[in-house]
Amino acid sequence: MSLSAMPGKRLAVARVGDRINRPSHLATAPNRFQGWSELGEKRDMPGPLAGLRVVEFAALGPAPFGAMLLSDLGAEVLRIDRADAAWPQMPIVSRGRSGLTLDLKSDEGRARAMAAMDAADVAIEGLRPGVMERLGLGPDTACVRNDRLIYARMTGWGQDGPRAQAAGHDINYIGLTGLLAMLSPEGEAPRPPLNLLGDYAAGSLYLVIGILAALAERSRSGKGQMVDAAIVDGSVSLMAPILGMIAGGLMPADPNKGLLAGNAPYYRSYLCADGLAIAVGPLEPQFRRALTGAMGLDSDALNGEPVAAAQMLAKQFATQPREYWLAPLDSVDACATPIHDWQAARADPHLVARGVFGGDGPVPDPAVAPRFSRTPGAAQPDGDGAELLDRWIGQSR
Q: pTM of the prediction?
């Protein structure tokens, strides 16, 4: 489906090639990142972080995804790969980088890495606490040499605490904080939702939030600082809305017994006759009436005993294939949508219209998110790390 084929939808499109004028209050600011740079001005589609210089020390898990998000938004990311550590490179998450392999155990390698941080706005590392200090590349050194540097540290347990030096992974972090138990039906062993919640939501996204907040503060103070992003901290923060509902009496102390955990007949998934599933979520009465009306059921069908109502709705869905039900449900506000796997999601008309999946290969390349009206940005091509570092050093002299 083309964008022009969507009736009643008007899209705000930023013009390509518009020159960004430097605000007068930044006229005397340093020539490095203030949201503006020669690089950003020359780009066809500059992202909002154009001109930001980021040094990423290659690691596993959430740190690379956080660096990808910054690159997607226009930052220049120099990834330093360790000669003695073979980190697997994931094709999508590692996009938009200029890679440089250094031996950080050698004087020359450490000197090059420090030169990169001297010229950078942000450094990201995801190693155990103390590793960078032992290499002579920790914030105790780097932030003294470059007092505008935002030194962002991504770990599971945090920089301090009894478990700071312990090994761990996503399931351990969300398990310890109570987040995993919130997602586990009673009587079943907790099962992690891939590693999306811990590594990437509680980890990467909070890492990026911390970096952006530190940059905003630097614009006032002129000083950098260290950002301690821990997955356990982010996991507890993510629980705030649920804990708030518990505190307000809107949800039981065990969230698995609550409405949003699939215990209500109108907030769960159902299988159709062809084995395909539909997500049903009409929480409000008017949407429930729309759902039952579209399915030929009594308007009060979902207001009775929950188990019986769910069984009735499951039986009804099972009589026809999914496409049969989607036709009437899509014509009303019933809060009912197909549940796709990622392969099928690529062809969904709404997602096609939004352009959320890119690329023509067997695995899609997610588009940049979120979207900006003036500075839309785009996934950037990979570059040569040695050339990028030499340019940074030359421009910083």
A: 0.86
